[in-house]
Design brief:
By secondary structure, this protein is an alpha/beta fold. The chain is built from 33 helices and 27 strands. The strands form seven sheets. It has an eight-stranded mixed β-sheet, with helices on both faces. A seven-stranded mixed β-sheet has the order 15-16-14-17-18-13-21, sandwiched between helices. Strand 25 and strand 26 form a beta hairpin. It starts with about 20 loop residues before the first strand and ends with a strand.
Length: about 1000
Amino acid sequence: MNRWWWGSGGIGLKQPRLSVLAFTLHVDELGEEWVAVERWGYAAELGVLWGKSKERAGGRMNLLMSHLLDTGAVAELMWDRFLAPSTREVLDDVAGGVGRGRLFLAWLCGVHDCGKATPAHQRLWPEGADLVQAAGMGWREPLAAAAAKRSRWRHDWAGGLLIREMLSAARWAPQQIDWVWPLVAGHHGAFPTLRDLREPSKAKGQLKGTGRWPEVQQAVLEALTRELGFADLREVQPEVVPSRALQMQLSGLVVMADWIASDERHFTGIDDFGALSVNGARRRARRAWEALGLRGGWGTIAVPGPEAFQDRFGCSPRASQTMVVEAARRMGAPGILVIEAPMGEGKTEAALAAAEVLAARFGADGVFVGMPTQATSDPMFTRVRNWLEALDPRLAAQVALLHGKRAFNSEWKRLLDEGGADPDGLFCGVDEYGLGDDPYGMPATTSECSAERQAPAEWFLGGKRGLLAPFVVGTVDQLLYAATRTRHVMLRMAGLAGKVVVLDEVHACDVYMNQFLLEALRWLGQARVPVVLLSATLPPAQRRALATSYMAGAASREEYPVEVPEAAGYPRVTAAWLGEDAMPLFHVAASPGWRDDLPVAVVPLPEAIPGPRATSGEPSGERDAFQAAADKAVGDLLEDELADGGTALVIRNSVARAQSAYEELRSRFDEEEVRLLHARFTVTRRAELTEECLELLGPKRQNRSGSERLVLVATQLAEQSFDVDADLLVTDLAPVDLLLQRMGRIHRHADTLRPARLRLPRVYVTGFQAREDREPAFVYASEKIYGRHLLLRTAALLPGNGGSWSVPGDVPALVEKVYGTHAELLPGTWRSAGAQAAEEQAEADRRRAESAREFLLTRRGEHEKPTLAGVHYGGVSTGSREERLQAAVRDGEESVEVVLVVQNAEGESFRTLRGRSLSINGDVAPELLDEVLGSAVRLPSKLTRDALTLTPLPAWHGHPWLRHSRALVLDGVRRARLGAATLRYDDLLGLYEEQAGS
């Protein structure tokens, strides 16, 4: 076996100190080669330098050399069993040839903690400090303590400084040193500047180490280097400077290896220097890898043939789907593929088929599928698992669902391992001894170690690690987080690299979110990650911006203006990639849709809009009267239209309008004939309602017979990836692309039986008031959400009575007109108001884009920087919890989620919404945990200030799942006072605010 050989005298005997290292190759009794390292003077020193205290290493101190070897051994397994073929190929190129990438990765991961060979770290654990000082390595504690108190200079930054100095002494090229040291200095989640590496002057060398320390530090690095297979430090030097994106990926892999090797369950401490060996580290790493259930994705796969679509999805491809797959086959390099097709065309299947082609051609090992919301992620999780199961049954269990409410997805819950431990707890000890703070405003909080039940993809379910799973379905936020200047962003980027990224409904990203999407596309382009974007309705300017950002990243350029060609027709596909000469190349195509154009009658249904004072948000009798009249008009309409039976979808732009319409309709229809769906139900109730609505109106529903009627009243939840098929739509006015999305929820399936009077699709547009000789007025909520500019331009396109839009044929032209700049679209009497609205929108967009920049991973003008040094400098503190990150990447007024509990009278025990008893302090029995968590609901943003005063119940403070949950305590009739508002929860209406006198 591999062993360290330190001479016949052993560690405990004093021997003459040699000034140089001597290395001898030996072959043991098993025929294995191992390196004998003779440095008589430093065996004792390396035999006491500690990497993990015994409290963090299973009860026994772990020597620093042990942890470095363990981490390098984990990195070797990551190369063999985890990295994508494309990543291995590019790392071989960087390192200097086939096979060298593996060696270099192991060394880079192993060397990450070299800064622990300093007093800055060794002084932190008293027991270890005594051993180090007894071995003759001292420091002046008063100076070190005073300097450490005033500075953040600890082992990660110390390692950055040491590696710079030692690689320079080894005659590495400066440009190679410049990109390597930030990976060592940043392995705790934030990249410092070069200036940060300087030891504080007040330390006077007592944190870095003087006297014998430099020689011991050199011995640590040289011993690790040779044991991992290099002749010396000079031989480690790469041949190519990697792109910043690859540096970011490598940084994430360093963190991943460190976290795995810090799992004390599998890497218990080794305090006997004579027991250390690289082969022993490899055995430990293999056992840990298998016990943690770690694995990569599908590895190297063959390019699928024409029959693959039928095999994967059980049907022959439509013309548009064939077009998309063919575009993926034609791309000459990893690039961006934009699919635009109408609702119901089969974009998802086309994108997954294209992803398989791109993965096979360019060496990707998995996929990330990003959706606009948690609600749309859940059904996509099922579809991706079905696709992978058809490809290889073993892969379906490797899919991770990644969003904050995944615990309430029934399919995900079935995959959970009920006996699992806290996966976040496996690395809570990594930031041991004072690394909980952060110099750039990104603190590590205890929330980073919150519990999460495990699924088959075990280790990947901990905080910040989800994207490292081979196959991931989640909200687009997970991708956007990778474009933020936040702690451990390198883990997220490492998770995306080596995958194919598929993003659905990209038009749903507003101006603010789009800044993060464009930044993410830059990094993905530079990382050579194939990206597939889907949209039913994509404004031309947005399509150009998406392609240009990706290409700028691929070219490693700050500015890279390109002319993106546009296909004539719809559905269409646009593919862009960088050619071998670094010139942009494109492939565009269009095809017929799978169904003929359908004339959709668009009928304006104006309503009276109250004046500004009545729409201010304050209680108003005038506003209520206007709302009642609008609801009555909808009720009259639906009673008439559904007289012979049928189904209708009513979409309102606010929860309050949806609740009001529902109450009106419930007074006219039977209880079982009306449903309400919005975001202000509890998590559990919303999931139940969504599943029920999909059963009643989804593709697998049973055809209704006779005069059966059903009306679903919903908010924007029904706008995206909501596979329902109604006969009739009543919708508030929204920007045209969203209006077209809503139209996609009616007459979706040709074989659905419909009443005779509803066999032709019809849409009634509400939420505005036509005014003579001037622009229309809009519902307050609509204007607040969407702005007047797009509403005015959309309203100008509405046909008069008897008019229709041809769907999908008219879709591109309609979108281009609304998102264009031609003032002529508006009637003459609207143009003055339209010009003012356009100016207001441009200014609002500018402010929102500017406010996003403080969170972006790369500052303006820094996209061509060669290294990661200082990336986190000036970052904005967002914390690491999901809600804080989401607030960073999603604009809008902050809202707060609360957990509803009931207390009939003060001093009594708390109860769940279903009446099950907790305790007077709120103790939650294990069998009630899901019920309590499922009672979470998001409050209106206007209540945020008061909601922030809410706290967990007393018994929740120590609970791993509830300690951050704010409790809203309802009385016996489910009412609560919050500030000046009186809130009430109803199973049919959800959460609503009671008006005075109601």
